[in-house]
Write a structure and sequence with these properties.
InterPro entries: DUF4125
Order of helices and strands: HHHHHHHHHHH
Helix content: 55-70%
Number of domains: 1
Protein name: DUF4125 family protein
Organism: Bifidobacterium longum (strain NCC 2705)
Pfam family, one: DUF4125
Number of strands: 0
Number of helices: 11
Length: 210
């Protein structure tokens, strides 16, 4: 089925699949408002996947399918993993025993990827401060029980990827970091985000911020 889709159709299918899993994610305080906001969810997730090439898209689509087959929900797991920082006692007691444990090697490789992306996000925020203000807090040290940082969110998401998907993601980040000049994936993602929101450029979107 995946082979029959164009790249853009595959991206849309992935966003819809994530949305379906998001709808089955139980929030401790009841259903979250964002679970009813398809337009924003679609914009934010599609913007990310527009930076991905087909092999990574195909691998992640397979992850979502495989999760369905065994009764896993990768979106639920992503938010659960974030709680290692935002609600550590709850995580240790109620979540950690029930999700796949990452090897030390995998966790260390993820941290290298995360460090690169946090550096890119910091650079973006310095150049586009108004757009930066609208983003999540940057680092895990800024987490609160009700607010999750960019770093913690990324750590939660990477932890749900299969080994194959993570290897492809890691390679993508490495290639962008090695490019001259570097290709800042945060900037690319935010450019897609504002373009999906009706702006032509980041400069135009920055100027529109109050």
């Amino acid at each position: 089925m995946t082979n029959e889709l164009t790249d853009d159709e595959l991206r849309e299918a992935i966003v819809r699949h994530e949305w379906d899993q998001f709808q089955r994610t139980n929030n401790e305080g009841g259903r979250a408002a964002c679970q009813g906001n398809w337009p924003v969810f679609h914009q934010m997730r599609l913007a990310q996947f527009l930076t991905w090439e087909r092999p990574l898209l195909t691998s992640y689509a397979a992850d979502l399918d495989a999760a369905d087959h065994v009764g896993r929900n990768l979106v639920t797991e992503k938010y659960g993993r974030m709680m290692a920082s935002t609600a550590p006692e709850n995580f240790t007691k109620n979540i950690e025993p029930y999700i796949p444990r990452l090897s030390e090697e995998r966790a260390a490789r993820q941290e290298q990827v995360i460090a690169q992306q946090v550096a890119w996000a910091k650079d973006f925020r310095e150049r586009y401060p108004k757009l930066g203000e609208a983003m999540r807090a940057l680092t895990t040290t800024e987490d609160t029980p009700s607010a999750t940082s960019f770093e913690t969110y990324l750590r939660g998401e990477l932890g749900t990827y299969s080994d194959q998907t993570f290897e492809r993601y890691e390679a993508m980040i490495g290639e962008r970091a090695a490019a001259s000049p570097q290709r800042n994936i945060t900037e690319e993602t935010l450019l897609h985000t504002v373009q999906l929101g009706g702006f032509d450029t980041l400069e135009e979107a920055e100027a529109s911020q109050a």
